[in-house]
Amino acid sequence: MFYIKSTTFYFFLFVTFFVSPAISLQNIDPPAIDSVSVNKDGHVKIGWTAQIDNATEGYFEILRDKKDNGPDYDSIGTTDLETTYYIDTNIDASESQQSYCIRAIIKNNEKVTTPLSDAHHTIFTESLNYDICKEKLIIKWSNYAIDSIHHGSATPKPVPFDSTMILKSSDGKNFEIKETVAIEQNNIKLPIKKSGKYFFKIRSFKINDTITSTSNIKAITITETSLKPPDFAHLIKASVINNEFIRLNLYADSTISEPSYVIQKAENQPSDFNPVDTINSYKANILYKDTDAGFLNSKNYYYYEVLDSCKRSVKKSDTVSSIYLKAEPISNKENKLTWNEPRGLSAEVGYYVIKRKKQKDSDFEVIEPAIPPGQTSYNDYFAKYGEEKFFEPLIYKVKAIGTFNYFHKPQLTIYSNYAKVERELETFIPNAFNPESNIEENRVFKPIIRNVIPKKYRMTIYNNWGNIVFQTNDHKEPWDGNINGNKAPPGVYRYSVAFRTKYGQEHREKGTVKLIR
After folding, report:
1. Total Cβ atoms within 10 A of residue 331
2. Is the pLDDT of residue 5 over 70?
3. Residue 204 forms beta bridges with which residues?
4. Backbone Cα Rg of the chain
5. How far apart, in whole angstroms, are the C-alpha atoms of residue 73 and residue 115?
6. What is the pLDDT of residues 427-461, one digit of tens each?
7. How far apart are CA 468 and CA 374, in angstroms?
């Protein structure tokens, strides 16, 4: 508001004014800005009040901060002394906070320019950001501010408002109050549950006062208020690869936003799962290697959780298991294999294939091409291939052929771990023999060595005086009880048997044997 008092020219007053012509003008205060508000067009309306007496002519000058380093104001327009507002149409206050000050330039008998008013800053709605994870809109703004301009420096001053309203509209025209906060607050989170376009502006006010200041309008279009969950999450199989790791085949819905997959694992039983790794990928088909799996002594169960971009678990895959194969000897000529049926999408087994190799071999050979589903054991009677052939350790693996045709892919195969059968060295040395016995095996003296083919073999027989009566380097050659073609006398003889296995193990036996006639 602007006030000018009328003057009655009494002689006494005239003389006083003539003697001191600018006394009342030289001591006038600068105009006081009430508020700066941004209208719907992004223009700024500045309103002020001024108390000026005895002014015969003059105008108000409006200045705007150039936003360089430090306060530096340019004149942007003027009004006559009867007008106490100004609309700045040459600025878009939707882009940044603006600052204004006012001064009066008045004349009576001389020209007088008042000091600059305090600089008032518009409220600026800086940003609208929707947090889809919390389903809340985050609004930030720069508060209404006042600076006292003095010799080129700015000193903050208290604002004339004590509260702030957050106004919302769906059409940009009709606004309603959503929240009211203290003047110091400069951000808020509003729950938004529906998609659509929203308009917001900020208004500061003082309770029981009519003067307000309004910010620019900001708009946001929210297309989704919650993240789309995946349509599917499949864990196809868990397969042991070359006894080095377990490979998982994940088939995931890659259309969701920023997915990640947490691999969960449990041993032996499908319970007590623990996270082992997290994968971030946009691929539909994902291969994962579990190099820490204990597949040599247990089966492993797996599933994975899908996390959305908010790191929330939104879906779980089915649970799958690996095939754990065990192999053990049940006789000198037979090994028994047992395994579990796999679990998962590919768990509908069409048949199993059993493979075997010797330790020194590089490739497996098929020993059973088609074991029906439901059968989870197999006895390998390897003696029919020649016992000598299998003195070294044997290694087995099982391959399951699944009937599940996943998304028109070829039939799935799942491999077990390698299971090794390594028999302990067995030696049996008779303590007596009779060359005239009716039982053929009892007519000679020969150590029985099982589960290994001896290398660098030597057997020596001594009489009671320590003389050598028989010696051989052939583990198949026995002592028949003769010395240089003549029958040895009955009695007790000492022997020494020494050999090295093909794996480098040294073995030595000493004792006595009784020759009976």
Report:
1. 10
2. no
3. 164, 213
4. 50
5. 13
6. 889 999 999 999 998 999 999 887 777 888 999 99
7. 61
**Per-residue pLDDT tens for 480-497?**
999 999 999 999 999 999
- How far apart CA 262 and CA 274 sit, in angstroms, is 10
The closest alpha carbon to 84, from 142, 32, 135, belongs to: 32
Query: How does residue 174 score in pLDDT terms, banded at 50, 70 and 90?
Result: very high
Distances (CA, A) of 100 to 5, 147, 217, 309: 27, 10, 20, 44
Count the residues in the chain: 517
Give the per-residue SS3 of 38-97.
ECCCCCEEEEEEEECCCCCEEEEEEEEECCCCCCCEEEEEEEECCCCEEEECCCCCCCCC
Token digits for 44? 């700024």
Q: How far apart are CA 50 and CA 84, in angstroms?
A: 8
Question: For residues 344 and 300, is the Cβ–Cβ distance under 8 A?
Answer: no
Q: For residues 130 and 224, is the Cβ–Cβ distance under 8 A? A: no
> Which residue from 113, 109, 110, 119 is spatially nearest to 48, judged by alpha carbons?
119
Decide if pLDDT at 11 tops 70.
Answer: no
Q: How many of the other CB atoms lie within 10 Å of CB of 144?
A: 27
Torsion of the alpha carbons at 355, 360, 361 and 364, rounded to the nearest 10 = 10
Distance between CA 162 and CA 211 in Å, rounded?
A: 12
Place of tokens 């480098």: 504
Place of tokens 């060595």: 449
Distance, CA of 514 to CA of 510 (rounded, Å): 14
3-class SS of residue 251: strand
pLDDT at position 20: 39
Q: Which long-range contacts (CB under 8 A, 24 or more apart) does 302-305 make?
A: 302/235, 302/238, 302/248, 302/263, 302/264, 302/265, 303/235, 303/264, 303/273, 304/233, 304/235, 304/248, 304/250, 304/261, 304/262, 304/263, 304/264, 304/279, 305/261, 305/262, 305/264
First-to-last C-alpha distance (Å) of the chain:
144
The torsion angles phi and psi of 105, rounded to 5 degrees, stand at -120, 110
Q: Give me the sign of the Cα torsion angle 81, 151, 143, 220.
A: positive
Written as six digits, the tokens of 37 are 């508000």
Residue burial 409-443, b: 16+ Cβ < 10 Å; e: rest? eeebebbbbbbebebeeeeebbeebbbeeeeeeee
